Amino acid sequence: MKRIDRETVQRILDAADIVEVVSDFVKLKRRGANYIGLCPFHNERTPSFSVSKSKGICKCFSCGKGGSAVGFVMEHESMTYNEALRYLAAKYNIKIKEEEISAEQQQAESERESMLAINEWAMHRFEENLMNTDTGRDIGFSYFRERGISERMIERFHLGYALEERDILFREAAAAGYQEQFLISTGLCYRQESTGRIVDRFRGRVIYPIQSVSGKVVAFGGRTLRTDKSVAKYVNSPESTIYSKSAQLYGLFQAKKAISQKGRCILVEGYMDVISMSQSGVENVVASSGTSLTQGQARLIHRFSDAVTIIYDSDPAGIKASLRGIDILLAEGLDISIVLLPDGDDPDSFAQSHSSEEVEKYIDENSVDFIRFKTTILLKDAADNPTRRAEVINDIVQSVAAIPDEVKRMVYVQECSRLLEMGEDILRRQVSLTRKRKAEQAAVERQRENARASIAEISSIRTDSNVIPPPTHVTNTSASPANGQPRLADFERGVLLYVVRYGMTTVCEAIDTEGNTLPMNVIDLVEHEMNNDGMEFSDPANHDLFEEARSLRACWPADFQREENEAAAHRNAEIEDGRRELAATANDLAAITRGEHMLTERANENYNESISSFTRNYVERSLTCSSNDKVRHLATSLAFERHKLSKYHTRFSQLPSELDKLPHLLNQAIYAWKSAMLASMSADLCIQIAQANAEGDIEKVMQLMQLKARYLELQKEYGHMLGDRVIGTR
Predict the structure, then answer these.
(1) Can you give the pTM of this predicted structure?
(2) Which of 607, 519, 600, 506 is nearest to 563 (CA)?
(3) Is the model more confident about 261 or about 251?
(4) How far is C-alpha 326 from the chain's CA centre?
(5) Beta partners for residue 68, in sequence order
(6) Which class for 74: exposed (0-12), middle (13-18), buried (19 or more C-beta within 10 A)?
(7) If we measure between CA atoms, which residue out of 324, 428, 414 comes closest to residue 378?
(8) pLDDT tens-place string over residues 299-333
(9) Strands 66-68 and 517-521, sheet pairing
């Protein structure tokens, strides 16, 4: 198997615009220099997902997920590193060059790729059956044409047909080289328990491929055309590593652009509803595919729009059944309206018999606010029955209580008071009680989760001298251990923050044995300090990140030379263009000389800034695009860390720039880490001293006490380590 070569990877990373990539999946709004939107990785109603165009990375400040354009696509679409690169290459029309990878790497990447590949193959096979086989055209194609579906829509939604033969897809797939295990894991085939034979799941059915937001074929729905009641009307792919039905909406891939443009998502029930509406020209339509709405589906909608219109036919039983699940949309903070179609119509038939203008006009004129619609529908059944009326009121209260916005909640309370003919104060109290009860239930559940996840810590001796506050420039996301021992991972990340942000930036000079001075960058300095004191990273993720940062030094000379050549060529072209303009516009030789001098100075400044920016961002850019998930996530977190200025920033405030402060701040971070390690070792010594004392080994107690005193002395020395140092290399 092959992988994308380094040069192509660099071109992809250079081309990928983080705002453009994220905007394909998340509705973004500009805020200052950055963009914000609702996080696509967890349920939220207030935007906390930030995208930095200048840094080329994104980050959720609630759940912590994010990354570069590559990392975002990997996380969002559950893709491998190579899959994400290929996705971006296709987006930016970059031709891919490949190189061979090892058998181990191939094995690690193959399963998901194989499942997606076999689904893609199966989709095209079903399309081929529909259009180019006698059975497919006579049965499947005729069915779609009878339903009024055009060939353009058949092609747009990749509709197909599965032949009736028991295992024809399995045999064709095997002949094409696809493995049995992936035919089964995708659900295209299954093994019969009675006979042990492998058979096709969708045989004799028209096929509706289900695509992810990015267009990957993750599953299929199949509809039988038989009238036999013993045969299930619809069969769907089972859930798998590439398909979760609660996180998919049929037609979203085709509809996402129209949803973003129109600011509204239209929600219907079935495949044909989506296809017919799209054919009529109303393209911002998706379907829940007959399942109850889920939180994952609500989040999908909210990424592209704040408003949802749900279209119902006139079946009262169906409406009442579906009303129960819509509180999920309310809790997501979406504005919901309902459209009730005329008697005898569903979205499919209504779209088939009306133009797009008529459909859109009907939706606009007949949209009713969800709470008002629900109140009206349920009150019809209550009539004069007090018990039923009380049930309706409680049901309405549940929906109003789900609305996260307080102002909107109060407006609905007022409206419900009028519709239900009930005092506003009573409804407000009931809504408050309902929200309080839900909050308590959620809190209990969180406590249970925490209890299940927690690990009891062994109590040990605590001395105040062992307690060191965490570094102020790194967010301490977890509580300190019971014995006061500092969490070394936090101090390690205090150092790695500078490795990620400034890795190749020179911070000092080293002197070799012959007295020569050599520039030393951030990575070199950290490595030198670690080697001098025999230090290692305690956290595996921290260790992996630093190792990958170190490995970048092998690529640095060639990458820097390429950047320097490009910057120099740009500078020379800028000067040459300027000279031509001066020659055409200047009045005398003195004006030309002055202009050339200013032109050269400006071009050199631009050149220096380009080189400086490349050097400063080299490690950050590489690590936030790492194929190692842990390294990528940690690098993104450090690159996007919201941190407050420590006292050291204040101490060096007279220095003109961040780069001038860098040697001092890095020095402080390193010695804070060393001091924390000593505190950790001191805490261990306390335990050993207590054990030795309990055993009556006074000599050992005295030795350990002397060692502990030495540790405390070193801590004090480290606490006073400030300023520049000249480092001698060995």
Answers:
(1) 0.57
(2) 607
(3) 251
(4) 25
(5) 57
(6) buried
(7) 324
(8) 888 878 889 999 988 676 667 767 767 788 888 88
(9) unpaired
- For the record, the structure tokens of 120 come out as 């893609």
CA 209, CA 315: separation in Å to the nearest integer? Answer: 28
The model's pLDDT over 22-59, given as tens digits with 9 standing for 90+, comes to: 998 888 998 887 899 999 888 778 888 999 887 788 88
Using alpha carbons, list the distances in angstroms from residue 139 to 121, 133, 169, 185, 353. 22, 10, 18, 28, 24
Whole-angstrom CA distances from 359 to 156, 347, 348, 506 are: 21, 10, 11, 65
Question: CB neighbours (10 Å) of residue 555?
Answer: 13
Both tokens assigned to 145: 């044409």
pLDDT of residue 645: 44
Query: What tokens does 290 get?
Result: 């007959």
Please state, as a whole number, how many other Cβ atoms lie within 10 Å of the Cβ of residue 535: 17
Helices (H), 38-176: 69-77, 81-91, 103-132, 134-135, 142-146, 151-156, 168-175
Q: Sign of torsion, CA 437 438 443 448?
A: positive
Beta strands in 194-236 (DSSP E): 198-200, 205-211, 217-224, 234-236
CB 674 within 8 A of CB 501: no
Grouping H, G, I as helix, E, B as strand and the rest as coil, residue 49 is strand
Q: Is the pLDDT of residue 642 over 60?
A: no
Residue ranges of alpha helices (H) inside 148-188 are 151-156, 168-175, 180-185
Q: What angle do CA 373, 379, 382 make, to 5 degrees?
A: 160
CA atoms 143, 148, 152, 153: torsion sign: negative
Task: Report the C-alpha gap between 96 and 86 in whole angstroms.
Answer: 8
Q: How many residues does the chain have?
A: 730
- List the beta bridge partners of residue 506: 521
> Going by DSSP bridges, is the β-strand pair 285-287/234-236 parallel, antiparallel, or unpaired?
unpaired
Which contacts qualify for 180-186: CB closer than 8 Å, 24 or more apart?
182/111, 182/114, 182/115, 182/118, 183/118, 185/115, 185/240, 185/241, 186/115, 186/118, 186/119, 186/122, 186/219, 186/237, 186/240, 186/242
Distance, in Å, from the CA atom of 218 to the CA atom of 251, rounded to the nearest integer, reads: 13
Judge residue 439's burial from the number of C-beta atoms within 10 Å of its C-beta, 0-12 exposed, 13-18 middle, 19 or more buried. exposed
User: Does residue 28 contact residue 22 with C-beta atoms inside 8 Å?
Assistant: yes
3-state secondary structure 241-307: CCECHHHCCECHHHHHHHHHHHCCEEEECCHHHHHHHHHCCCCCEEECCCCCCCHHHHHHHHHHCCE
**Strand arrangement of the beta sheet that strand 368-369 belongs to:** 285-287, 265-268, 307-312, 335-340, 368-369
356, two tokens: 């797009």
Sign of CA dihedral 555, 558, 563, 564: positive
Place of tokens 């109060």: 410
User: Which pLDDT tens digit goes with each residue over 103-113?
Assistant: 665 654 678 88
